[in-house]
Amino acid sequence: MLKLHNLKIILLFLVITSCKNAKNDADTLYYGGPILTMEDDNPQVEAIAIKDGKILFAGSKQNAKRFIGDNTNQIDLENKTLMPGFIDAHGHITSRAGMSQAVDLSPSPYGTVNNIPELQTTLKEYINKYQLDPTTPVMGNGYDDAIMEEHRHPTREELDAVSTTHPIIVIHASGHASVVNSAMLKLLQIPEDVKDPEGGHYRRDPKTKRLNGKLEENASFMALMKLTALLPKPPETAGLSQSLKDFLAAQDEWFSYGQTTICDGRNHGCGTYVAS
């Protein structure tokens, strides 16, 4: 029979060993594809072990085996590349959220609006699909004159051809300009003889000197703020406002592209959101 003293030593050894192994067991082990570390002296490894959201080990697959425990989730990358999350140094997540309810006017490869007739058709189809009342404002977002076939912005008259009763505003992909139709000019009380605001500009037809509908910089921002104030606020559902739901959807979209830190460039300063 073992002496009590020896038995205590053996039990102590087993407890220490058990604690040590449990402490070193990874929650997740990645392997099976290029793993980029962004470290100059060791830019690529075969495996990486994670525990409690922290990296335990990065190196060869053979050496990573000592971190595998009974509950370690082993993920085979199947030749896909694993790399650190992207940092969005200048983004506009709140703008994306605010435009989520707008008509998508993006060109290829993101959308289908590659010329002005397609822009007009998309707006008309939206109005018909939702059977909007004749005076309901319509907001479109994402058109890009640099990619569209005409290589120019739509005009007031071309938006009037979509509707003379629906106030319409379409926002450029840059977010720094927009185009409105005559009904929107009337709704926003922008007269033909309007003066340019500081830091903004109202474009005019070079021949007639009549507003052509294009609003630049602060002229566009002021129009959007005024329109937003005029629109009714949607009711809350499940305790969440539509604005918050749109923001959370935009956040999920950012994270789906591998962004793990989000900087909102239109905040006062820079708001940062980090994935957990």
Description:
There is one protein chain. Helices cover 30% and strands 26% of the residues. It starts with a helix and ends with a strand. The mean pLDDT is 88. 23% of the residues are buried. It is of the alpha/beta class and 276 residues long. The longest helix has 21 residues, at 4-24. It has eight helices and 13 strands.
Helices and strands: which structural class? alpha/beta
Spatial strand sequence of the major β-sheet? 6-7-8-9-11-10
Strand content: 25-35%
How confident overall, as mean pLDDT?
Answer: 88
Low-confidence stretches: none
The ordered H/E elements are HEEEHEEHEHEHEEHEEHHEE
Q: What's the main sheet like?
A: 6 strands, mixed
* C-alpha end-to-end distance: 54 Å
What characteristic shape results from the CA principal axes? elongated
- Rg for CA atoms: 29 Å
Number of strands: 13
